[in-house]
Structures are given as structure tokens and as C-alpha cells.
Amino acid sequence: MSSDECLHDTRAEARRVLGICNACGYCNGFCDLFEASKRRPAATAVDLEHLAHLCHGCRNCLYACQYAPPHAFGVNVPKTLARMRQRSYVERLWPGTWSGWLAAAFRHGVLTASLVSVGAIGLLLWLVWMSVPSEVLFSAHSGVQSGTGAFYRILPWWGMVLIGFLPLGWAMLSIGLSLRRYWRAIAPPGSVSWRALGSALHDVVVMRNLRGGGPGCNDLDDRASHLRRRLHQTLLVGLLLSFAATLAATFQHHVLGWQAPYPLLSAPVLLGTCGGLAMTCAVVGLARLKRREDRSPTDAEARSLDLAFLGLLFLVAVTGLVLLALRATPAMGVLLAVHLGTVLAFFLLLPYSKFVHAGYRLLSLLAEALERAGRQQV
Amino acid sequence: MGAPGATAAAGHDLPEQPDVLVVGGGTAALCAAIAARRGGAGVLLLEQAPRWLRGGNTRHSRNLRIRHEVPTPLSPGCYDRDEFCADLQRATGGSADAALARLLVEHSARSTDWLAAAGVQFQPVASGVLPRSRKTAFLLGGGTAMLNRLYAAAEALGVDIRYSCGVTDLKLERGRLAWVDCASASASTSTSTSTRASERTRLRPRAVVVCCGGAQANRAWLRSRWGDAADGFINRGTPHATGEVLHCLLRDGVRAAGDPDGAYLVAVDARSPADDGGIVTRVRCMPAGIVVDGTGRRIHDEGGDTASTRYALWGRRLADCPGQIAHVILDGQGLRGAPPSLYPPLLADDVDALAAALSIPRAALEKTLAEYNAAVRPPAAGDEDVAGWHTEGLTPPKSRHALPLTEPPFGAYPMRPGITFTYHGVAVDADTRVRLEDGGVVENLFAAGMIMAPNLMPRGYLSGLAMSIGVVFGRLAGEEAARHVVG
Ligand SMILES: Cc1cc2nc3c(=O)[nH]c(=O)nc-3n(C[C@H](O)[C@H](O)[C@H](O)COP(=O)(O)OP(=O)(O)OC[C@H]3O[C@@H](n4cnc5c(N)ncnc54)[C@H](O)[C@@H]3O)c2cc1C
Ligand code: SF4
Ligand code: SF4
């Protein structure tokens, strides 16, 4: 089946399923999707995309559905919308030039992530191996104190920048332009108000749509729990802390002129450690949920994309923590290369990973917040 | 969906003499099982449906009627004893059993708390997306979500639950229920009850609570009451409401309650599946158009009914139509305002094409529409309300909302009567013990839910009443059954 046909089928199924939900409405207490769908009876391609990104995949509406498969109506909202999201990630990709190829990255998330990680780690090890004399690479760094630039003896500062910021910059450009196209398609008329933005951010922080209307989500099966929401929030905090650590390090390097490695009680190390630990715990928790969960509400491709992203995050966080712990030992050089390899893979794959869901979801929540404000004014 | 405690192979190793046997798997059954277990009895629950279809018509329900003397997060205002009783007597034409009605009204006030304690979630009014309803409370996610919680609670309490296992026969002897035969179907996904394997087991429970609903899914039974018209009915709910237990009980001398010929019918889309289409099959847009039968003639005033009983009125009218089918016809304007529907309307650019699509004689449909359009009159001067449009000199009239039907495209929803439940059940006393035809009760047999609802509701209906009856009398029956065995 060509990808166009596939997209067509995915849309047709989403239209069919949401049409039944519009007539039923029993699930309208779980999340914003059901009322939003009712307000879009035409269910255009863009409407469906917006609705798909609005769904947080909490799964409640599958277990609550009297029409869930094997019923003749076969209503599976979470799975249908997960498919729609997958298609949307591919369709909105900028630049669209290799989208056929890159679609494969979305389709086979775990495979892509594994190959790219192995490649990136290999590349870094090879670079370091070629450029750093082995006495330096394997010397005990026990004597090396913080602030001496020990890391840069393994890889020069500009090398790190090249590995870090170039792919990251590209990723941000690509994701930014994809999101801009998406926003232009879904934005309600009128300008964005601070209030609406605040409301959308609030929805993200508390993950309101993952509360299942109060009792929580059907994380594993038809029982409700808040575990996934908590883990997801922890992951978000971990990512933000790690990001803050990078900012702090950049600030110390450029503005204060201090050289890494930084002492244990410095801002970058503290932030990075907390962030790394939070990310590791959250990722392990989420992966365990994924392993034990009932698979009927998910789409196989979406699941693979989720697992791939969790895997990447895990690699980055754990190699970072290990590097921190063993930075004064002869293993430091190799560990640094491995860690930077995982970071490189992570950044390279960012536009083709589950990471992008955050942007789409925020924009859909923002569009809903704006519409809500508009309705309240009327 | 593999879930904890899904006990599939039902027929095997059934306890031969359970303390309390609960027959059924909907609201009433779960409430009875939980209450009996909490009362100290061992409980075996037999659900005829496979696991995925567990829970009967409860799966399709949304709200329950509750008394509340003050505003609650679930229902605004208040709904006191007198008003509830008055509503019940009015809806049933004064035929509700007074003692049971008092019990229902009294206990309904505690049912949401009781359900919540068992883990059931309700949707607060503050969610802002519910229809305003002072007299009922809404389940978060509907009946299926509630059932998930109740099954989990029952399992946690140690209720022995068997799916795909239905009661096929039973014996009443000297005021006691002596034995019960049950048969298990192989745990298939088939909705057909006729594929049941012949593995039969005879149980001698110490007490039994029957909560197995009505007989609305039993085609032979419907045909015996309604003749050929029954073939044109669509069963809105579970295909497992087959009424074997009701049949056996009445055969063995139990006193009947309600009306053997009664059925709660609403208008549903004629394209719906024969069973289990649920709430989404309803057709509601009659006031926006005209309703014609297969001969192209209008059958009734489409703008006349406004009360919530209007759905049921149309169900009855459809049952009387030739072939039990009629079509609501809308024009472009009506189509734009139609509520979301399961199936799209059949569309045509002109009346000719529409008649062809509906297999209605063309001339007849054109004549009906022309006469209707010629008879419509705007509201009296100064009245802006479109509801004020009406017909003059037309039989049957259309008393309100009679806008001209002239704007193409034309659309139609074909409709059939959709059966929701039957009004025939077993009589019970205030302890929910099943009563005998010749006086007295069956000492170890209790009934709850739709199988005894005709005591309270021999005709008529109030929204949310069926679920309230299930919760209130399910609990009572479970407690009484436990008391009977535990002492
Ligand atoms: C579409 C639809 C919407 C509805 N909405 C509402 C609503 O919003 N509010 C409301 O109050 N009511 C509603 N109702 C009415 C509904 O019938 C009741 O709410 C409720 O389901 C009655 O509960 P019950 O336990 O008596 O019967 P059911 O829930 O029907 O349960 C009967 C159970 O018995 C089982 N069974 C049948 N025969 C046997 C046997 N021989 N052996 C073993 N098990 C057997 C069935 O499989 C089933 O599990 C609705 C009905 C329909 C069809
Ligand atoms: S998921 Fe099922 S129960 Fe929920 S609104 Fe849709 S059709 Fe209704
Ligand atoms: S957020 Fe949850 S309840 Fe809402 S549509 Fe998605 S899976 Fe269903």
C-alpha cells in the first residue's frame, strides 16, 4: 500500500470512529477530545490531525467503550488517533525532500534508533581513538582536578560544539518549521493571547488530559492509575534540568571562562545529576509500563517510536551519569566518547523521534485554549 | 483484552453448592454479588456473555436517577422524595408497587456513594460538558467504565466470576429453588447464543439472585407477542437478554409482574445491526422534517411531542408501520442542524431520486411533500421563534417546527423500532424475594434489576430509572441472600 493510500485509510477510519463518538459522547469527561470533535462535524484532514494531537493516549476511552473490538463497530479511539499522529509527524516533516526515507524512521523507531546510536557511538570512539594518543586516552585522571579542561584533551571544545550544536540546531530548525506549518493549518482566527498560552502550558504541566477526568489513566489495563502521568512529568522535569545544566555549563564556559569538568557542587553538575537521575527513573518506569501494558489501545509503529525515544533518553542519561561517576578513572576517555555518541544520536534523531509530539500537542492545546476563550467571550 | 482474573473456562470446576449464586452480569448482578460477599457469603456469578460483552444493557447506559435533598457535585438543585415518587407514579400511570417505589426512592440517595466506594467514577457537573440534569447522576465514561470498576471490586472481594456461562434451566419445588442448570459456551467472540456448547452442570446453590434482565433479545419470544412485526425490530442492547430464566420461573409458578406485551421501543436507524447497536443508533431529528412510511404517507405530527417520552412514542408508531419502517425526511437546512448520527443520511438532489433511494413510490412522496409545503404557515406576526411554524389544513398536522422542505439536497434517515427492554418480569416482595402465583415466596430466590423492574415500572419510563433499580435492588437482594445463607 502506498503511503498516500495508507494516509487516506487512516483518515477514513478516524472519521468513522469519531463520527460514532460524536453520536455517543459517553467519554466526554475523560479529556477534551470528544467535545472538540463534536465542534468539528466536518472532520476535515486538518481537524482530524488536530484532534489526534489533542489525544494524550490515556486509553481510558477504549476500556470504557461499549463498541470496542470485537464489537461490530470496532471503536478504538486511542489506536486510531495514534495512527493519525504517526502519519501527521511524517506529513509535516520539513524538509519534505527525503520524507519517504524519513518516514521509515518513524515507522521503525527502535531499529532506526539502534542503528543510529551504534553508528554515532562508533564514530565518536573512532574519532577519539584516531586523534588522542592512548597514554592520554587511558591515563588515570585521578590527578586531574575539576576546572582543568580534562574533557577537552579527549575532544577539543570545537569538536564538542560540532557534535552537539550543529545537529541540535538542525533539529530545532526542522522541528520549528514543521510546527509552524502545523500551526498555520490549525490556528483559530485572531491572535494568540498570553492567557491562552498560559492555559495551554498549564495543561502541559499538570497533564490535565492524562487525568482521565480525575481518577487517572488505564495505564496497563482497565484499572485507573496516575503512574504514567507522574512518570511523564518526571521525565519532563528531568529533561528541563538537563537542559538547564547545559545552559549553566555554557554560561560558565563562555561568560565566566571556567573550564570543565566542573566540581561536584557546581550548578551544571548538580542540575545534570538531578536531571539525569530523574530521566533515568522516569524512562525505566515508562518502559516497564510499556512492557506490561495491554497492547490493544496502541499502534505497533507508535509503540516502536515510543520505545525508541525512551531508549535514546536512557542511553544519554545513563552514560552521562556513569561519566560523572567515573570521570577520575582511566575509563573517562572512552566514556566521554560513548556519552557524546549517544548525545549525537539523540540530536540527530530528534526531528524523527517521539520528541516532536510535545510541540504538536502544545499547539493543539493552545488552539483549544484560544477557542475556549473565544467561546467564553461570546 | 487480557485482564486480571479473567476466568474463561467456565463450566469446569464450578462449585456444586455455592452459598449464593448470582445469575447475570450487569448492574444488578454486580451490586448483588458485592453486597452478598460483603455480607459474608461465598458468591458465584454466572454471566452468559463472553468477557468482552459482559454486562448486558448496563454497557450502554449513562446515568442513574437519584434522590438528593441538596445540590451535589453530580446533580444541581435538589430532587426530594415527593418529587421522585410523583414522577414515578405519573410516568407509570400510578401502577408502580408503592412499597417498592418507596424503597427505591429512599435508597437511591445512597447509591452514588455506595458505587463510589466500590471504585465507580462519576462525572461532576463542573466538567461543563454534561446535559443539565437535576434528577440523574452521570457515570464517567458510561456504563462500561462502571462495569470495569464493579467487576474489579467483585474480583478483589473474592467473587467467583464465570463468563460465557448461562443458566438454562432451574427447578422450583415446595417454595424453594432446588437446582439450577448452567451451560458454558466455549469462550468465543461470537455474539450468538445458539452456539453454546452442550456442557451442562447442575448446581444446588443455597440462595440465588436472578439479575439476568429481560427477554428483549429473544426473537421467538418477541414473535409470540408481536407476530411478524417482531422481525422488523432492532434490539438496541445485549444479544444475551434471552429470558430463559424468566421463562423457567413463570413456568414453575412464579407470579408475573408487568405487561407481557409491553416493550420500550424507540426510533433507531434501520441500518443498525440486529443487536447491541446501543445509544448511537437513535434517530432524533423528526421535528426538523417529516416522517413518511414505505407508501410515502406521513404518519403523525412530527412537531407535537416535546417531552423526553417522544423517543418512545416514535418507537411505538414505527412498530405499527407497514414493514416496521419509516423515514424521516429533511431538506438542506434540516440536514445542517441534524445531530451527529451513526450512519450518514441517504442524500439525493431532488425528491425523485430520494424516493428511488428509499424505494418509496415516487408520485406518493412528491404529493406528500407538495401538500406539506403548501400547508406550512409562519408563526404569528411578531413571533421570531422558528418553532412557531405550523401547518394549516393538513392531516396529520405538524403543529410546530413546520418549516418548508424545499432546499436541496434532500436527505433521509430510515428508521425501525429499537427495543430497549420488555415490561414482563417476576413479582417480588420488599425483601426482593420472588413471589409465587398462589401466594407466598420462594425462600431462597431473590431478583433484582430489569427482571423485577416491572414491579415498579409496568409501563412508561423515566431516564436513569433502570440503573437506579439495578443498584438499589441489586444491593438489597445481595444482602438478603447473604442473610439467608449466613443467618
Ligand atoms: C442503549 C441503551 C441505553 C440505556 N441507557 C440507560 C441509562 O442511561 N440509564 C438507565 O437507567 N438505563 C439505561 N438503559 C436501560 C438498561 O437496561 C439498564 O440500565 C440496566 O442495564 C439494567 O441492568 P440489569 O442488571 O438489570 O440488566 P443488564 O445490564 O441487561 O444485565 C443482564 C445480564 O444478565 C446476563 N444474562 C442474561 N441471561 C442470562 C442467563 N440465562 N444466565 C446468565 N446470565 C444471563 C446478561 O448477559 C447480562 O449480563 C439503557 C438501555 C439501552 C439498551
Ligand atoms: S469511545 Fe466509545 S464510549 Fe467513548 S464516546 Fe466514543 S463511542 Fe462512545
Ligand atoms: S486522551 Fe484518553 S480518553 Fe482522550 S481520546 Fe485519547 S485515549 Fe481517549
Automatic annotation (TrEMBL), chain A:
The chain crosses the membrane at residues 109-129, 157-179, 235-255, 267-287, 307-326, 332-352. This is Tricarballylate utilization 4Fe-4S protein TcuB. Signal peptide: none annotated. Keywords: Membrane, Transmembrane, Transmembrane helix. The gene is tcuB. SUPFAM superfamilies: 4Fe-4S ferredoxins, Respiratory nitrate reductase 1 gamma chain. It comes from Thiohalocapsa marina. InterPro entries: Citrate_utilization_prot_B, NarG-like_sf. The lineage of its organism: Bacteria, Pseudomonadati, Pseudomonadota, Gammaproteobacteria, Chromatiales. Gene3D superfamilies: Transmembrane di-heme cytochromes, Chain C. It comes from the Bacteria.
UniProtKB/TrEMBL annotation, chain B:
Its cofactor is FAD. Keywords: FAD, Flavoprotein, Oxidoreductase. It comes from Thiohalocapsa marina. InterPro entries: CobZ, FAD-dep_OxRdtase_2_FAD-bd, FAD-oxidoreductase_2, FAD/NAD-bd_sf, Succ_DH/fumarate_Rdtase_cat_sf. Gene3D superfamilies: FAD/NAD(P)-binding domain, Succinate dehydrogenase/fumarate reductase flavoprotein, catalytic domain. SUPFAM superfamilies: FAD/NAD(P)-binding domain, Succinate dehydrogenase/fumarate reductase flavoprotein, catalytic domain. It comes from the Bacteria. One of its GO terms (molecular function) is oxidoreductase activity. The keyword Oxidoreductase applies. The keyword ATP-binding does not apply. Residues 19-452 form the FAD-dependent oxidoreductase 2 FAD-binding domain. This is FAD-dependent tricarballylate dehydrogenase TcuA.
